[in-house]
Amino acid sequence: MGLNKLVLASAVCAALSTPLQAGSELATLLMVLHENGTISSEQYQRVLAEMEASRQQEEQLKQGMQAQLDKASNVDVSLSKGGLAVKTRDGRFSTNIGGRMQLDVASYGEGSHGAGSTLGDGSEVRRARLYLKGTIYQDWFYKFEYDFAGSGDNKSGITDIWLGYKGFDFEGLSLKVGHFRDPFMLQDQVSDNNTQFTERASIDAFTAGRHIGVMASINRQHWTTALGVFGDKASNKGGTADEGWGTAGRVTWMPINEKGALLHLGLAADYRSTRGNDVRFKQQPETHVSGVNFVDTGTLTDVDSYLSLAAELAVVQGPFSAQAEYVHSRLDREFANNATFDGWYAQAGWLLTGESRPYTFKGAKFKAIKPNSIVGKGGIGAWELALRYSTIDLNDGLISGGEMDNLTLGLNWFPTPGLRVSANYIKVLEMERAEHSLDNEEADIMQLRGQWAF
Amino acid sequence: MGLNKLVLASAVCAALSTPLQAGSELATLLMVLHENGTISSEQYQRVLAEMEASRQQEEQLKQGMQAQLDKASNVDVSLSKGGLAVKTRDGRFSTNIGGRMQLDVASYGEGSHGAGSTLGDGSEVRRARLYLKGTIYQDWFYKFEYDFAGSGDNKSGITDIWLGYKGFDFEGLSLKVGHFRDPFMLQDQVSDNNTQFTERASIDAFTAGRHIGVMASINRQHWTTALGVFGDKASNKGGTADEGWGTAGRVTWMPINEKGALLHLGLAADYRSTRGNDVRFKQQPETHVSGVNFVDTGTLTDVDSYLSLAAELAVVQGPFSAQAEYVHSRLDREFANNATFDGWYAQAGWLLTGESRPYTFKGAKFKAIKPNSIVGKGGIGAWELALRYSTIDLNDGLISGGEMDNLTLGLNWFPTPGLRVSANYIKVLEMERAEHSLDNEEADIMQLRGQWAF
Amino acid sequence: MGLNKLVLASAVCAALSTPLQAGSELATLLMVLHENGTISSEQYQRVLAEMEASRQQEEQLKQGMQAQLDKASNVDVSLSKGGLAVKTRDGRFSTNIGGRMQLDVASYGEGSHGAGSTLGDGSEVRRARLYLKGTIYQDWFYKFEYDFAGSGDNKSGITDIWLGYKGFDFEGLSLKVGHFRDPFMLQDQVSDNNTQFTERASIDAFTAGRHIGVMASINRQHWTTALGVFGDKASNKGGTADEGWGTAGRVTWMPINEKGALLHLGLAADYRSTRGNDVRFKQQPETHVSGVNFVDTGTLTDVDSYLSLAAELAVVQGPFSAQAEYVHSRLDREFANNATFDGWYAQAGWLLTGESRPYTFKGAKFKAIKPNSIVGKGGIGAWELALRYSTIDLNDGLISGGEMDNLTLGLNWFPTPGLRVSANYIKVLEMERAEHSLDNEEADIMQLRGQWAF
User: Fold this and answer.
1) Which residues are bridge partners to A93 per DSSP?
2) Is B186 exposed, middle or buried (0-12, 13-18, 19+ CB in 10 A)?
3) Residues C183/C226, Cβ–Cβ less than 8 Å
4) CA pair distance C217, C214, nearest whole angstrom
5) What interface predicted TM-score (ipTM) does this complex get?
6) How many C-beta atoms lie closer than 10 Å to residue C116's C-beta?
7) Structure-model confidence comparison of residues A441 and C298, the more confident one
């Protein structure tokens, strides 16, 4: 709109100069009348002088008005999917308000329910987040996001709270300070708004998550790199013991990265020194409603540090997309043998309505699908079919965290940009965990999500 | 403002076409001069051609400017009572930010205080809510509201979080999915901003409250109907047990519904299958500051399901309004006799300053009173006197939840739209509850509220 | 922008009147032609009449357009440091969205760490606040602010929630109702965004803090006064016991108060009747990350009431500023001897880059430093060096709350308005507290803060 106002200003001023051009007819007529001897030279000069005075007056008005219009169109307000975006025309300041709402319903079948039930059917507000983000004096940018469904029980609802600086001369370089997601694993970098399934694959047990830290990153069309040093989570409330710290880094290479075609390769590492704090890896069967973990190492107390390594692969070809990751995690323990856990997943999706899963090199991740046609304007939105296999192994030596293999079938519907309805059927193919009431059971889960993000 | 901008655009363009009209004087003069033989046909044609060229140039500018103005006035920003409302001129998108703030002070008299005191004098932030709501692609609409005074202690501050769809051809039909209030009882449908007293009548013990669910409703000038199926509350955090579910419906008939005159009749039902979850009915003596319940069944464990039925009546005639409701609730218990509780209230109000209590058929409920005159502009705002009698009986068989009859005198002052000060004097006429320290005492309560809603 | 639009409207209208002025050339020509006898009187009158008709038409358009422009420029949107400010041109309504984000990292040296460690190194989100404030019908104003980092553990994140009225005829008089900071101590009135050090001096143990109450204040260029009556905190959840209440007042005199020069003198008192509620004074060593108190009276149960008195002094001369306060607190106890605690601090700052620490008589407090030059536009921002000595004594009779003397060296950097980075080195000169593991230890603390306020 800022640009439009500029063009508008020009248009108005051009329009206002038309009396002058209209005046050119008058000048021509005057000249004709003078040439014909109808009016005297003195009369001719007198009217001409009046015309020139008018022209100068108009010119002044034009310039004053241009200045006023520049100020009037200083700020630009727009709505997007129900949020609010305001920016100054000079790009030095901006403020955005938005959020995401996710509502889940889950029903657990035999093997997970009934006699010896451990998974309770139900519904939940999965996420209810609002954010405020902005640009400050062009080079600085910040975000604050809070999850109103995620607070309580020693958890903080704070997700993102960071300040960035991008005023460097080096192309694509930026610096971030605050509480944000460590650069580890593709499926973690992709917003949960835009994941192909309602929950991330089970290796999310190895997620680095969010910490307070500082990170430098370079994002370019065909490669990215990010490296950060991190303290503890925003929810850690201090105390008499030192907090843990860690470092995480990720590099990606996208030899193909154009509209509708992608080849993405990535490597990432996450090192964490616990400084005496407890460590625990656990995961639900790719559902969140019941909150029951299928694999769980329990609290591991004497871990000095651990190092997780991840390898990423993603492909897009028109309406088809595929994505796979492998994670390996090694724990250094003081008074016990070191332990090693790992897991991987592979998933593929097909957009039945012909869209292509969009990707951005800024953060090297997938973005939100925009339907080609919109419900309510004669369209049916976008429809996507997806399939995923995932496996995780948290058994090593004396640690019996369990093992789980899942197959998930997903259907996603995007009636308009910002809206999404997802249905997931999750079949636990194998679940081995000694002393767990569902050991050797093959649970199946039907899960629905409604989501609007703005 | 959107419309204004459109009118403005037309005005500007009309104004800019005046050189042409001003040019019509010139055309007339030219014609005259040509007719008089002062200028030759050739000269006449030459100046005329210049005029036509100018006219076309101006026409182009006009159209370009119209297009630019259309874009410039695309978004409409307005403030209302301290909130923010933004919408696109085409009505396809809107975003609103608003909230409500309620501050209470309560002092408890003899029979509720002093020796054997159970009600503590004090003040509290009763509600501190902010909401964000919006329209997405015209047919979809959402609301997210959070109560910053209502979180903590296993409670979630989430009140409303829902997505609606109104793109149906059927007049007044809409669909809602999410966490919102079940359609049960008139006094629950009326926002607590707009209730006649600071707290709802004691049968609020039977409130259906809010749940995650789906609801269809039809709202028309003279009747409404709503039917929903509901899971559990947003604050329920899942677990190993299944959550409860329920269904609620409400029909209303308003044979008289015009400005200043209303006859409202309503029936509603709320059925809930507990699926093993506990049930408890309890109520404070229409005050919230101390948090002490006067009637309370305690936790009832073996309830299979319960069904509550409500009948509603409301009347408005000029500055007078009246409202009454009766609720009957029946519990099905597995290993004990079924139990039946009930209660009712009747209240009447008189707007001393002549306003009429406003009503909307959208949800079949009362709205906020708008004062005829405003404090600060020579007015005194709106003043309302109100009286209520309420009774509730939670005794049945072995369940001794108690019985309470209250009389409340209320005075409401609305200095401007959005602002409200309320004073309530509540006299507990009878309170019978075995083994309660206030059994047979007749407490009296003085309560003040300051409120601003925007 | 409102004003700009007004000026713009005038400019447009003036511009549109130019056809008339341009028409004056035509009028002159007509007159000339008529005088020369080229056109007849009838022809002259005909063209003149057409001109007059055009002029009137333009005048109407001008007025209509003026009205439309007045409406179009009704609301004014601006961004400031990443927040959002909207106001109506008539000043009757406004809505502002803003907040503050503070991130801390602290490292504790010998004497506070290592063997016998009690202070844990770490990082934290110190404050994450958003606010909404506004003007309602010109005379009323409100603020709601929530600290998303401050909730949980029986604490409410609500900081400010109040409604004010300023429609009095008496200059500088305003009334506030709600939850806000009691008028006590200069360092408490100064926003934590604008304090010279990351944490307030140790006598913050005597802070009156925020309560629900009502306050009248008069703010004038050379003096202010404020007096309030207060109930309990927003976090107090009522119950069977009465809440405490108190009253606090503050007067200040600023014989010198101009740009770059200030002499501020202040006196304040805070009285609180506990009504049986517990009392506790405690303080961390001017760091917040670890959360460990160095001085702490523990819970004092039989305190009837207490009265704290404070004396304030502040001076600004160009880039130099100084500030000092003394607080004395006396506890009346029922079954024990009365107790007396006290403390004071003195601090001085020097803005190396030549700015002056700004002050406002509205609340009689310091404001945010605005750098003369901005990072990213060739500048280095503002840099400030500061030094503080503080002492507190919580020992009296049988109460051994301890004694602490601290010296703090601070460096503040303000790259742009709204952004701040602070480094504080705190040396505990003396810490005497019987039975505390750090008794007689001289801890030293290195603390960093990143802050953006908008």
Assistant:
1) none
2) buried
3) yes
4) 10
5) 0.86
6) 10
7) C298
Which residue reads 């502002």 in tokens? C96
The answer to whether the CB of A341 falls within 8 A of the CB of A329 is yes
Q: Taking CB atoms and an 8 Å cutoff, what residues of chain B touch A1?
A: 71-72, 74-75
From C133's Cα to the closest Cα of chain A, the distance in A is: 16
The answer to whether C450 and A177 have CB atoms below 8 angstroms apart is yes
Share of chain B residues as helix, strand and coil, in percent rounded to the nearest 5: 15, 50, 35
User: Which helix (H) or strand (E) is B450 found in, with range?
Assistant: strand B444-453
CB contact under 8 A, C140 and B416: yes
What are the tens digits of pLDDT across the range C196-215? 999 999 999 999 999 999 99
The C-alpha atoms of residue A35 and residue B56 are separated, in whole angstroms, by 28
What's the pTM?
0.89
**Strand partners of residue A395:** A400
Residues of A in Cβ contact (< 8 Å) with C83? 95, 134
> Which residues on chain A are in Cβ contact (under 8 Å) with B156?
125, 148-149, 152
Element (H, E) at B52: helix B41-72
Distances (CA, A) of C159 to A151, B154, C130, C291: 18, 22, 10, 20
Pick among A16, A57, A74, A95 to test the C interface (most C CBs inside 10 A)? A95
Tell me whether residues C236 and B124 touch, CB distance under 8 A. Answer: yes
pLDDT digits (tens, 9 = 90+) for B37-71: 888 888 888 888 887 887 787 777 667 656 655 65
Burial class (CB in 10 A: 0-12, 13-18, 19+), B222: exposed
Q: CA-based angle B202:B207:B213, to the nearest 5?
A: 170
Q: What are the tens digits of pLDDT across the range A70-87?
A: 655 678 888 988 899 999
Q: Residues C238-241: contacts with CB within 8 Å, 24+ apart? A: C238/B120, C238/B122, C238/B124, C238/B288, C238/B289, C238/B290, C238/B291, C239/B120, C239/B290, C239/B291, C239/B292, C240/B117, C240/B118, C240/B119, C240/B120, C240/B290, C240/B292, C241/B117, C241/B120, C241/C275, C241/C276, C241/C277
pLDDT tens digit sequence for B7-16: 444 444 344 4
Alpha-carbon distance C373 to C415, whole Å?
Answer: 8
Cβ distance C75 to B77 less than 8 Å, yes or no, reads yes
Distance from CA of A280 to the nearest CA of C (A): 20
Residue identified by tokens 């656990």 is A282
Is the Cβ pair C120, A241 closer than 8 Å? yes
